[in-house]
Design brief:
This protein is of the alpha/beta class. Helix content is 40%, strand content 28%. The protein has 2 domains: 91 residues, Glutaredoxin; 56 residues, no CATH class. The strands form 3 sheets. The chain has a 5-stranded mixed beta sheet with strand order 1-3-2-8-9, with helices on one face. A two-stranded antiparallel ribbon has the order 4-5. A two-stranded antiparallel ribbon has the order 6-7. A hairpin with a 5-residue loop joins strand 6 and strand 7. The chain starts with a helix and ends with a helix.
Amino acid sequence: MLVVAIFLLLIIINFESLRNTDENLLLSFNSSHTSYKKVKGEVFDILTEDAVIIFTSDDTEAKEAKRILYNAAVINDYRPIYEVDLTAEEIEIELVDNKNINITKEPTEFYKKLLSELGSFSEVYAIKNDFGEYINTGYQKIYTPLVVFVKDGNILYSLYLSQDEEISDEELKEIYLYGFKLLNDENA
């Protein structure tokens, strides 16, 4: 009876290990191969170094992008990856009568400074009206998830995927791997 119980326990353990998702495997690699750190104000110092930074807000696309980025980081044995959560920092604007804007939340001073630092890596804040037309709000925004690869204080490569773009996880991983390649290139 004891032999049967041990046999069943071994089967359950093996079955559970086969069910690991890429994300679970990544978490097990994470501690030894790469590290991840949430930052805020320190990002201005980090932008002067060699770094990979992902700017996020509370959305599903950011979670997927982070998972794929971490997998690419593990492949390159790159650490650390910094995350800046912009959820509470961003300006919030609503459209009134399909053409006029109303600011419902002002951006924080941190966000304004970050827009200034990122310069051309921020974008025009546009809102889609009921007719499918984009209305320029006159403000800048950091669309997320935004990943920047920084070397010697210069942004070598960045990527923001809009919700309108269709890209597979494998294609996104290749794009991130290219960013890591640029970071590792001595001539970049």
